[in-house]
Amino acid sequence: MYALVDCNNFFVSCERVFDSRLEGKPVIVLSNNDGCAIARSNEAKALGIKMGANYFEIEQFLKRHNVQVFSTNFVLYADMSLRVKGLLSKFCPDIEDYSIDESFLDFSGFETHFNLKDYCTKIANTIKQGTGIPVSVGIAPTKTLAKVANKFAKKYSGYKSVCLIDSEEKRIKALQKFDIGDVWGIGRRHTKRLTEMGVKTAYDFTCLSQSWVRKTMTVVGERTWRELRGEPCIKMETIQPDKQTIMVSRSFGKMVEDYETLSEAVANYTAMVAAKLRTQKSCAASLLVFIDTNYFREDLPQYSRHIVMNLPVASNSTAELIRYALEGLRSVYKKGYKYKKAGVMAMEICAQKDVQQNLFDTIDRSADKRLMQVLDDVNNKYGRNTLKFAVMGDGKAWKIRQEHLSPCYTTRMSDFPKTV
DNA sequence: TCTGGGGTCCTAGGACCC
DNA sequence: TCTGGGGTCCTAGGACCC
User: Fold this and answer.
1) Which nucleotides in chain C have some atom under 7 angstroms from a protein Cβ?
2) CB within 10 Å: which end of chain A, N or C, has fewer?
3) For residues A4 and A105, what is the distance between their CA atoms, to the nearest angstrom?
4) What is the pLDDT of residues A136-192, one digit of tens each?
5) Which residue approaches B8 most closely, CA to C1'?
6) How far apart (Å, rounded) are the C-alpha atoms in residues A134 and A70?
7) pTM, two decimal places
8) What percent of chain A has pLDDT over 70?
9) Long-range interactions of A89-93: CB distance < 8 A, separation 24+
10) Rounded to whole angstroms, how far apart are CA atoms A253 and A396?
């Protein structure tokens, strides 16, 4: 049996832990740049605020209904996520960190020793008490069915946050009440196609022929079909595989025209990519740089280019990667456009220890390696960008907007909550 | 004025190899 | 009517996830 533990309205719940006045009130968290709603409390959902709703379009509505608004505070959410996962690990040895707010637990062998429903209720209570975050738990014989059970646990208060699918009868009953579009692995495209064919529920889907599903939805769709029928096909990934690509991209707070400002932003994104590479002890052999104008502004001339820079030897040095990124930027930059977004992606990533040397490369990188070590040590201790490269500038001209940012309650000394 | 960011996997088709 | 057999690698595009 598998369990899926999912934090309820996670980002909103994180904000609520440290500000009890938000309890029972409609609350939303916005995306980067305060662009759109990416998390909503139940009260906000009840008001009809949609996932992804543009902030500037609903701003007046939010004010009228006294909705509390927050900019995204990833530092806080990431730290709260660690706390939740730390508690989870006390209950089960085989855990897959699936996302910032979801974990799969492998309960193989547990059934004979525990009443799974009681056990998961205990998990939910412990997490709520230990972190303040409410969670829901779905338990079933496959991961896809555990996802289904989890939605039931969330949706119907009768389950008291824990839903178990452990019989044929319950499985069929659940799938008959489950919209096809809500199934894990069935996205918008497949939903449209299936609905047009009259396949409306997850149960309808399991009644289709295996060969048809395989042919039209590939092995991926077939896996979902089998999982829904109770056959486990998707394995647990208890060890996080290294990233194959690492991307940092942002929309700017304002539109940017000049090369200097653009290069500051690209240098910053590259520094973030390099730091992430070093964290997973990897190097990248190529780097993609892209710049875009604002494609929502149909009244303005549009321009969008990307370039892949190949490095002679895979690297994770901020200095070296910035050099290549800026060289790439120089070749795609064109004067006369208002840019809205830029990004940098590390590709052809390999482990640091497996880097292929280049016969014609004569640069000694040992000093660079030590420099990066110092840079990481200083920045880990005193905060990001305490030590940085001059080309990164101060960000004044391009930084994202975050007008409703909450304090870093758990990670910044000066922001710690104080009792009076 | 304003419209998020970061990933993975699979398939088809072309180019190339012996 | 017929035009070998068996592979690899790469890319673009499509689908999905949070």
Assistant:
1) 14-18
2) C
3) 6
4) 999 999 999 999 999 999 999 999 999 999 999 999 999 999 999 999 999 999 999
5) A244
6) 19
7) 0.93
8) 100
9) A90/A126, A91/A119, A91/A122, A91/A123, A91/A126, A92/A3
10) 9
Give strand letter and number of the nucleotide nearest A249 (CA to C1').
B5
Q: What type of residue is A6?
A: D
Q: Is the pLDDT of residue A420 over 70?
A: no
Name the residue type at position A206: T
A218 CA to B9 C1', in Å?
11
CATH number for the domain whose boundaries are A246-392: 3.30.1490.100
Ordered by start, the domain boundaries in chain A are 84-228, 246-392
Residue A137 CA, nucleotide B5 C1', distance (Å): 27
* Dihedral class, residue A336 (left if φ above 0, else alpha if ψ from -120 to 50, else beta): left
Q: Write out pLDDT tens, residues A75-120.
A: 999 999 999 999 999 999 999 999 999 999 999 999 899 999 999 9
Three-state helix/strand/coil letters over A314-367? EECCHHHHHHHHHHHHHHHCCCCCCEEEEEEEEEEEEEHHHCCCCCCCCCCCHH
Nucleotide nearest to A343 (CA to C1'): B5
> For residue A372, what pLDDT is reported?
97
